[in-house]
Amino acid sequence: MTENKYKITINACFLAYIVQAIVNNFVPLLFVTFQREFDIPLSKITLLITFNFLIQLFVDLVSAKFVDKIGYKASMVIAHFMCASGLVALTFLPDLFNNSFVGILIAVMIYAVGGGLLEVIVSPVVEACPTDNKEKAMSLLHSFYCWGQMGVVLISTLFFTAFSIKNWRALAVVFAIKTPDINYDLLNRFLVLCEHNNIKAIVCLNKVDLVSDEERKIVKEKINSIGYEVLFINAKQGLGVEALNEKLEGNVTVLCGPSGAGKSTLINTLTEKYYMETGEVSDKLGRGKHTTRHSELIDVQDGYIVDTPGFSTLEVTFIDKDDLKYCFPEFEEYNNQCKFRGCSHYKEPSCAVKMAVEEGKINKVRYDFYIRTLQEIMNGRKY
């Protein structure tokens, strides 16, 4: 029974060295991803290795008294907890700080403490176990670090191949446990502003490769039903760009949309030149970085196209409450059918628009957006 207990302890130590291999080798596999996603220079990112090992070295030097005081078992649990916490923190801390590098650095610091503790306590535990094959156990112990290192590279490669390296956060969480959608509210606000300014709007949906045919059909029907044309494109691959070119010819066209939607990439594709800097979308926040900081008039297709800085919200309260209903094309055939002249389609009885909503002729979600916007305008002004 005692011998079996020691075998379990030794096996746990073998696994601990695999954990240490994970925390030391997983992050370096993501250096290029960190550079692209967080716009951090590689020269700065590579400092993470030095930072990791300096902390582990510091822990090696100062942890002896701490381990002696609380015991090896408690220290082993704390070490694994720190390793797991650091890897989990890596999935969200970079997005919580204005400087993403600070978030990554904190996560590395957390798991480096765990890695340093493992370095201190694992070998003495194995050496202290009264077994007949102590030399073999010690030799195997260090080989398990090598196996762990190989496993990290192999499993990470398979994961990135199957699910894309953009999902590196999920892999980090898996290791730790073992160890922008269409914003319809923003789109509706944009369409209301276009109608208010008598601007013809075409809804151009980029990154079509990320949705299924069924999802594409649902989105198209939803937007078509409120009176707008939809174009599906992939700016990077040039898919659907030819149809968009036909709309641009002879016109001055303004590209508007949230950060990360691909406006600058689309301009680069349309002009076949590198006009605009492009950026990545944050997986955590679901929005992109503001790589476009100005508006520029660009000659394309015998017309002009303007790229604009991205936005995450739009102000509509300057629109008069009596004019708002005219910013919804689907209301047009019902505006003059209400019992009361000047009906706002809100609380008035015998309202043709509300009846159309009840009959399913007007999209209820869109009508609800109209009411929220109307309330926003009324609350923001004194009438």
Question: What would you say this structure looks like, in words?
Answer:
The chain has 383 residues and is mainly alpha-helical. The chain has three domains: 2-178, Growth Hormone, Chain: A (Up-down Bundle); 184-307, P-loop containing nucleotide triphosphate hydrolases (Rossmann fold), CATH 3.40.50; 324-380, Probable gtpase engc, domain 3 (Ribonucleotide Reductase Protein R1, domain 1, Orthogonal Bundle), CATH 1.10.40. It is built from 16 helices and five strands. It has a three-stranded mixed beta sheet with strand order 3-5-4, covered by helices on one side. A two-stranded parallel sheet has the order 1-2. Strand 1, helix 12 and strand 2 (229-232) form a beta-alpha-beta unit. Helix 6 packs antiparallel against helix 10. The termini are far apart.
Feature tags:
383 residues; mainly alpha; Growth Hormone, Chain: A; Ribonucleotide Reductase Protein R1, domain 1; two-stranded parallel ribbon
Summarize this, please?
The protein is mainly alpha-helical and 383 residues long.
SSE inventory with pairings:
Blueprint: H1 2-25, H2 31-38, H3 42-45, H4 47-62, H5 64-70, H6 72-89, H7 93-96, H8 100-128, H9 134-163, H10 168-178, H11 184-196, E1 202-205, H12 213-224, E2 229-232, H13 241-248, E3 252-255, H14 263-271, E4 296-300, E5 303-307, H15 352-358, H16 364-380
Parallel strand pairs: 1-2, 3-5
Antiparallel strand pairs: 4-5
Helix pairs in contact: 1-6, 1-8, 1-9, 4-8, 5-6, 6-8, 6-10
